[in-house]
Structures are given as structure tokens and as C-alpha cells.
Amino acid sequence: MSKLEKRTITKQSEDFSQWYLDIIREAELAEVAEVRGCGIVRPYGLKIWELIKAELNKRIEDDGVENVYFPSLVPIENLEMEKDHVEGFSPELAVVTHAGGEELTNKLAIRPTSEAAMYKTYAKWIQSYNDLPLRLNQWANIVRWEKRPRPFLRWSEFLWQEGHTVYATEAEAKDEVQKILGIYSDIYKFMSIPAYCGKKSESEKFAGAVETYTVEVMSRDGKAIQGGTSHYLGTNFAEVFDVSYLGADGEKHFGHQNSWGLSWRSVGALIMAHGDDNGLRLPPNVAPIQIVIVPIFKDDAGKTEVLNYAQKLKESLKEYRVKIDDKPNQTPGFKFHYWELKGVPIRLEIGLQEVSGDKVTLFRRDNNTKEIVLTSDLKKRIKELVVEIADNLYQEAAEFSASHIKRIESWDEIDDSQVWFEASWSEDAESEKKLKERFLMVSRELPLGNENKKPNNKKCFITGKEAKHDWLFAKSY
RNA sequence: CGGGGUGUGGCCCAGUUGGUCUAAGGCGUCUGGUUUGGGACCAGAAGAUCGAGAGUUCAAAUCUCUCCACCCCGACCA
User: Fold this and answer.
1) Whole-model pTM?
2) Which of residues 298-357 of A touch strand B (CB under 7 A)?
3) In angstroms, rounded to a whole number, what is the distance separating the alpha carbons of residues A208 and A205?
């Protein structure tokens, strides 16, 4: 019973929201900042983001995108140039009104996204079709004064990557939208999370976009998290900022633009997709520490022997992120719990038993099981396990997601149980509003595979009118 | 912006019909010692102008007023 009292994490089944906050605090990922809605991301939490970032950066650079950096302050009139854009973002703008001890004549917004910050410059850089395509990306901080912040998922200030590209033709631009969507989906797979790719409805798309594509992932409480978006902007912004080029035909044309972004919200998705009642469960790809070695000893003689052995093991595992937890005055049991809470995928327990037997006791966090491995087999076993753990977490999440999407045919089948559902929909905006009002659910996406497919049911599940496609709906964060 | 709630050592919190409160307890921290195979134990220590201001009173963490901050449920939201 005394052990139960030491539990510092609320059970998922009791209060998922509290569980999430507990994990973030106890696993030392982040804490609430002095400024409302902002978070302080601690080293362990930031490292997870940096591992995601490194992988994503590599993929987009491999695809030919270059990194760039624009200022975080944007003249507010730039933001006001595109009508839908300003309507979408003005409520959540943070504005700088004073600087240098004086009131500014031209107010500056802290970027809520960078379309308006970048495209005037794009207009200068692009003169002819020979300057296209222009494919740039920036890693940046963003400020959006949301009414209801949430750690990682919706902080007032957050870090993300935003790609901004310009093509001569619609077809090329739309190709890229899909390619980026694929990269985002791969990034979630890199985190052992299945992503559902699809297109947003009219009401849910990005302010100023022609089309928004999204990757949606499922949290373990059955809610949806928008994991990244890839927008085709058409010539909406190009016409406003004069992003135009002289074509081979000698005529002026507007560029076809895309923007796409993925933020550290993905860290929140990672926590919610894999975490359990004992804490985080990190896939090896994004684990700040992939292997933790816990030495166990009784006296000074044993201590030296065990620590030497641990050191040797660490050196033999150089290709992994390995930590030896040799803190004195903490019992092995304490350390086991601590590193399980932090989600370290593999733990090696080493005591005199292991040293004398030339073996290690290995614990894997994904399924919480132990096995004994001969030291001679350790490298091979770990190489297998890194893959096995990632696959297992992916499988588990995929099965969970799939089993929590149900097909429904009519409004009457919807209940308040918070799971996703698929239904044939008329795509009528009013009906979506009605769904939101009654069940707090909205359309999540028109799945990629359903775009060119007839709906399963000819009748819309809300209006009874003609259905256009099969859509996914869910409550979301 | 509506509805609800909370502010007490680094963290969780007890105390709120005003009076041994000179503010209790747990976690953590520090010192010494014993320990270390699933959240160790003993002894000692440090650490709080009780969210802020004003007021009532012999007496305020406790009552009154004003303000501030944060959290939760919504509205809003790549």
C-alpha cells in the first residue's frame, strides 16, 4: 500500500487530461512559465523535439528545400493584406506598440505564421520562371494568443518549421503538397505513430488557403490531434503580395504557392499516443536516452567492479544514446521507476550476478518485460530490439486507432463516447456546425483514399441529402 | 469573453464559526550514520513577510472591500 501512495501520476482512465499534465511535470519535460499560456521546455522535453526536428530537417533538405530565416516581427499592415488571412489570425495576434521608448506609428505583430512576413520579399526574389521553383523553409518561433492553451499542443508561443514554396504551375505545387504530406506521415511513423492523411473541410482549412491537407493522429483517450498541415495557397497570396514571374511566353503570371508546417505539438501527440499509467513510452528514434544502465552494488569492492563493467558496456554501445545512472544514495528500485517514467526504451541492470555470469538483465519499456542476455549477444540483441520496440509501439498504436474508428450511417448512432467515426457526408457547412454544437465534434478529414471514391452511403448522415464522400469525424485537441 | 474553482517553504497540501498558528504534515533539499536486485531507514537542520493592497479588531492565513494571477469546463484555434 505504501507503494501505491507514492504514485505521482493520475491514471489515464481516471482523468486523461490530468494524466497528461502529470506526465509533463514528472518526466521533466516542461513547466508552466510566468507568462500566461507559455511553457518552459526543459532539456529532456526539448531533446525529443530536436530529434524530431533533425529527422524532418534532413528529409526536407534531401528533397531540395533550403533553410532561411525571417524576423519574428511583421508589419501589421502586411498581415492585413490577405482578407481571409487577417480574419483568421487577428483575434490571436500579439502586437508590439512601443519600441525604443516611443510609440510606433507602424505597429508590429509577432508572427502568427510567416506568409505575410515572407512574401513581399519573395516578390522581389522572383522575376522570371527561371527563378522557380523557390523552395524555402524556416525553423521559427510563433506566437498565437489562443484563448485556451495546453502544454505542447497549444502554447501561446511555440516552435515549428514552416515551408513556403512557389511554383510556376498549379500541378507542380499540388504535387509538392502531397509529397510534404507524405514526409509528415513518415515523421509520425518515425515516432511509431500511425497518421491519417487527408483533406480538411472548407470550415477547417487554413485561413487563406485553397486546400489544406492534414495528418491526424489519435490520442489514447480517443481524441484527434492535428499533427501537421500542408496547404495549397493557389495564387491568393501571390496576387496580394505580387509574387509574379515573367513566363517563357513573355507574359506575367502569378506564382502558385504552398505553405506547410509541423510544430512541437508533435511532442504532445507522442506523449498521448504512447504513454501509459507508468509514464512515457518513447520509441528509440526520439528517445533522448535510448539505453540507461543501472549499476547495482553492495559495497565498495562491488561498486568498482560493477561500474567498470557498466563503463565497458557503454563503450561497446557507442552508436546509441546511453546513460549510466550511478547516482549514489538512490536504490535500484527508485531508479527503475524514474527511468520508466521518463520512457527510456531499454534499461540494462548490472550487478555482481551479471558481472560474474557475463550477462545483463535487460528491461524493455514498451511491454515492461525483462530478459537475460549474454554480454556476447548484447549488441546483436539491442540492434534487434531497437527495431522491435519501434514496431511494437507502432502496432499497438495502429490497432488502438483502427479499433476506435467506427462506421456510422446516421446522426442517431453518434454518442458522447469520444471515439472517431467515419460517415458519408454532404460536406454541407451548416451540418458540420450542428454536429459541433451537439457533440463537440467536427470533420477531421476526407481521407486521401476516399477523394476519388463514391461514398458508402448515398445519403448524408446528418442532412439526409446526397452524400459526396466518406469523411472522418472526431473530437479534437 | 461566459460558467466554476484555486492561491499557504522548491513541490503537494492541512488549517478558513477570528484567539497556544510563534502556521501542521508529506515529498524534496542539506549534514552525519547505516543502506542499495522494484520508489531505504535513523538522527538532526535549513527553508513561509499565508497572491497584493486597504480596512475592521485587543487580536487576521481566517472577516470586509478592491485588485492580481493561475487552473478547469466552454466559446475561439496552423
Assistant:
1) 0.95
2) 298-299, 328-334, 336-338, 340-341, 349-354
3) 8
